Every structure is written in structure tokens, then in C-alpha cells.
């Protein structure tokens, strides 16, 4: 009984921490004579401390259950420490708990607006390791279960935590209550959708069919679904009947009291939902979760061996990777919503930029979900095709979409000194970190040397065999590629760009270095990650070293087309800059009647009168 209760305390403390940082850093206005943010910071520090300590104590109790040894027995804590960092079931919660205690320490030191905003994002990231444990980790569709659980945890934590924080701070919000509640309501709606869809996917993966809804696990899923529907109804009533009235009459007591009552009821239902979720996490899904190790590919990647390789299957097979597919769908949807917002107010947006942005994300989804992503997990050559497209092809299209410029034109400006999406984007693009990493030389160094470090270190093996490593690999490829392309041809706001000739030089040097990497793979006689590729025993890859050398040819050859396109775009930017400067000089000459040219001619005439033409 103690462990489930401790888990509820852990989850609620984590949610309250996230919610306090959300309100203090991003949603809640601060008046000249108010101390709302400081109070929220103190509560966040306390809840983060409880979160971390509850997690560590839960880890001790979990190890006691797993090992069958009593807490405090001889050698218990030394064995617990050793096994915590060897078993993912214990390691992931320990990482989250340790992060929570670090967050509590940082929150006790600094509680300003910017610090609380950073700690909000840090707290959300700290939750993610929990998606790697529990029944999701043992699911036959491991990656889908983990991804859906990650979305579920983030959505539920922000939703529950935001409401808890709003309720605890309600009496202190004063005239800022309407704005804070309205901003939270929009976030809560996104969280509701995220929780509902991710919960549906997670239940489908674990249950395996409608017939299992009558099992103990299925009944808990239905109970949680009913609670979610009730919460959605509460949220709708809050937005339509309370928040709208509160925005029109922020000083009236009636809507303020109604909001507090609705929020209290929501918190009670949320508490029951958290309890159901805790019971669900401790209930085995029906049908068992044993994963056969007879398939060497399944044993090492979590996916069964794909059918024999053919070009047709490479292009037509499909397996949805929900994490990155969801990110792509959201990126496209938000971009189109911003574009339509501009159109409705009469502003234009270049259609070619929209086409580039949508095409970039569609290409990304195709590479991740198609046969390229499927065979890329077991064949080095196909993996390299995936790498080249994600790091060079997709960023080229996304950068041409100019998303930052569109966001800054479409998003409203906050007038109460809080950090909205527009303010966060501006702070990011003008930060010191962006100024440093956005320099083409630094971006090129990061783009190339991280490539070498990745493939010639254990990181490559982790990316092939672990879900976390695979996700981080894709994110790294996309971000470094985007940063490199943006530093060369980006039109979005950011640090000053180097002159076009220097950018062309950086591009050519990077191309040469990239080609050198490809040649090194082509001529190499030592197989990278042999314990992985040799163990797969794929009939269509008789010699993994030959496949690795083919990957080198891919790395060498596929970089040419994106490089040519980048070179053309940099050159075009060079010409536009020269033409703009020429037109500026012409306008200046018209205004001052060629004063600069006349002064230079008089200088030449004076020099000629003193003994001939000026010396060069």
C-alpha cells in the first residue's frame, strides 16, 4: 500500500513543480507591488524537493521488491546503488529524481521570470526518462509504447500541474487572474488532446484488441477514459462560462469564485485519475509482455527482422514512428495556422516558403516511416541514406520556409512583461548561444566533427540498439543540419551573417571534409559496431563490411546535390547584396549630385597638378 501512495505523492509533486514554473515563468503577470512569482518559486522549490525525495524513496522500495531483500538489511544500500545504474527499471526513475533535486536547488537560488521559464522546460525534460520504464518498456511495440507514454506524461503533468498551481495562486493573482486563466486554458486544451490521443495509442499497443477491455487492465483503461471525458467537460465549461466572463469583468467576484469552484472539482477528478493511472502502471497488461529473443534483430532493436531487401520494399514499406510523425504534423499545422492568421488580417506570405516547409516535414516523415527508416536500423548503407536526407535535404527545405519570420509576424506581443511564444522565440534567436553556434564556421565544425565523433565512438552502437539513442540521433542530425544550412542561407532573424564569399569558402571546406569522411568509410577495413552488425545475420547482407563501404559511397556522393544548391543560393544572396549596394549608391548620388565622385575627381586633378598621377 505504501508504494502506490508514494507514487501518487511523487506524481502530484512533479505536476505541481511543473505547474508553478509554468505560471511563474510564462503565464502569470507580476505587478509593481506583488510578490506572486517569489511565492510560486517557493512552492516550486518545496514541491521539487518532495518530487525528488519521493522518487528516491520509491526507487529504494522498488529495489526491495525486485530483490526480495528487506530495506536496511546487510549490504542492501550498496547493492541498491550498484543495480540502480545497471537496470533501466531503476536507472530512469533515479535520473528523474536526481534532476528534480537539482531543479529544487536551482529554484532556491534564483526565482526570476527567466529562471523559472528555463526551469519549466528543464522539469518537463526531467519527466521523460519515466517513459522508458513500466509496461511500455516491455511492450512488443516498444518504441510506440514509449513514445505514446512520453507524450502522455508530458501532457498530463502540464495539465494537472498548471491547474494545481492556478488554484493555489488564485487568491494572489488579482487583476492578473483573467489573463493567467485564459493562457492556461489554451495550454490545457492542447494537453487534453495530447493526453487523449497518446492514451488511445498506448492502450491499443498494450491491450492488443477490444476483447481485452474486460480484463483488469482494460477496466482500468475504461475508468481512466471516463475520468478524461469528465475533465474535458470541466475544461469546456471553464472556457465557455467562466473565463470568457472573467476576461470581460476581471474584478467581479462571481466569475472569480466560479472559477475557483470549478478548478477545485477538476483537481479532485484529476487526483482520482492519477490514482487510476498509478493502479494501471502496477497492473500487468493482458496476454503477457514477453518478447522473444529468437530473432536477433528483435532482440537488439525491438523490431522484428524486415523481409528480404528489395528496392520496391525500400520505397513502399511503412511503419509509423509516432514521436517524429506527431512532431511533423504539429509543425505543419502550426505553420499553416500562422499563415492563415496573416491572410485573415490582410498580410501576404510567400507561397514558396509554405511549400518548402510542408515539403521538408513530409520528406522527414517519409524517411523516418518508410522502408528507409525500417531498413536503416539494420543496414549501414540505408542508414547513411537516412542520415544524409535528414541532415542535408530536410534542413534545406525547412530553412527556406523561414518559420521564425512567420512566427514573429503572426504571434501577438505580450504587453505585461510575461514570456509568450513570440518573446521566447526572440530571446532564443538573439541569445549568445545562437550568436555563437549560428556562426557558419562554428556550425560547420559542429556539423562535421560531431559526425566523426558519432560514428567512431560507442554513440553509434547506442543509437542502433536503444530507443533513447535512436531518438537523440535523429534530433542531432536534424538540428546540426538545420543550424549549418541556416548559417549559410537563412533569412530568419539571428546573428549577423558573414560575407557571402566567406560563406562559400566555409561550404566548400565542409564539403571536402564530408567527402573525406565518406572516403574513409569506403576504404576502411574495420567494421564499426561489429557486435551489432555481425550478430544480425541478415541473408541479404552477407558481408556487413561491404555494406559499410557502400555507406561510405553514399556519404561521399549524396552530399554533392545539396552542396550545389547551397552554393547557388549563397551566390544568389551575394548578387542580391551587390545589387542592393549599387542601388543604394545610385540613390545617394542622386541626392548629393555625385558628391563622392566629384571629390575623388578633384583629388586626382590636384595630384596631377603637383607632378603627375597619384602613385598606386
From TrEMBL:
It is a multi-pass membrane protein. It is found in: Cell membrane. It comes from the Bacteria. Keywords: Cell membrane, Membrane, Transmembrane, Transmembrane helix. PANTHER family: INNER MEMBRANE PROTEIN YEBZ. The chain crosses the membrane at residues 12-31, 43-64, 84-106, 118-137, 149-171, 187-205, 217-237, 258-281, 322-342, 354-376, 388-408, 436-457, 469-492, 504-530, 550-575. This is ABC transporter permease. Residues 179-280 form the Copper resistance protein D domain.
